[in-house]
Design brief:
85 residues, mainly alpha
Length: 85
């Protein structure tokens, strides 16, 4: 599976989003771009087929880290809202 990444990675996309100063609501509504989602699906397919290069595996690991980060951020926002009267 030799595909060259032509779009920013998930971490770069999230960094750009966070640097824009999003509101809590915007954070909760954040979704990766269609290009990023397509690349993640491509990498997951490659993983299932057993044909990822070391570089692609590292890229997939970054997607997983980015997803965990955003889930944590969203959970903290929702927990903060639940504590408010």
């Amino acid at each position: 599976m030799a595909s060259t990444r032509t779009t920013p990675g998930a971490l770069e996309e999230i960094a750009d989003f966070l640097a824009s100063g999003p509101s809590p609501e915007e954070l909760l509504q954040f979704r990766p771009s269609p290009q990023t989602q397509a690349r993640a699906e491509e990498l997951l397919d490659g993983l299932k087929d057993g044909c990822l290069s070391a570089e692609e595996r590292q890229e997939l690991d970054q997607f997983e880290q980015a997803e965990r980060l955003m889930r944590l951020v969203k959970a903290r926002i929702q927990a903060g809202r639940a504590r408010r009267p």
